């Protein structure tokens, strides 16, 4: 989807240094808002912003002062990941 934004001339002149990479900045703002409103998950934050790891997502959200949602679903996903890693021999068994 492509969106056009009209900015008043006097405003765009004053904020010119902020206009570089505007598409990325707007996308990040929208992703943050969608995450805060629980419309998307942390996984989707990473997918939409092109992050390669969960740690990158967490760092991005922390830098944006966004509370990280962690609920029972997240816990179960983490447990399943640990089970799979143990099964594959990538983690020692307890």
Structure overview:
This protein is mostly helical. The protein has one domain (21-87). It is 59% helix and 0% strand. It contains five helices and no strands. It has helices at 9-14, 22-36, 42-49, 54-63, 72-87. The radius of gyration is 18 Å and the shape is elongated. The N and C termini lie far apart (48 Å). The model has no long low-confidence stretch (mean pLDDT 89).
What topology does this entry show?
Layout: H1 9-14, H2 22-36, H3 42-49, H4 54-63, H5 72-87
Helix pairs in contact: 2-3, 3-4
How would you describe this structure in keywords?
elongated
What's the quick description here?
This protein is mainly α. The chain contains 5 helices and no strands.
Overall outline: elongated
Structural class: mainly alpha
Mean pLDDT: 89
Q: Spell the H/E element sequence.
A: HHHHH
Radius of gyration: 18 Å
Low-confidence stretches: none
Please tally the helical runs, counting DSSP H or I stretches of 4 or more residues: 5
Total tally of structural domains = 1
The count of DSSP E runs of length 2 or more, i.e. the number of strands, is: 0
Beta-strand portion reads under 5%
How much helicity do the residues have? 55-70%
| C-alpha termini separation | 48 Å
Q: Report the biggest beta sheet as strand number plus sense, adding barrel if it closes.
A: none
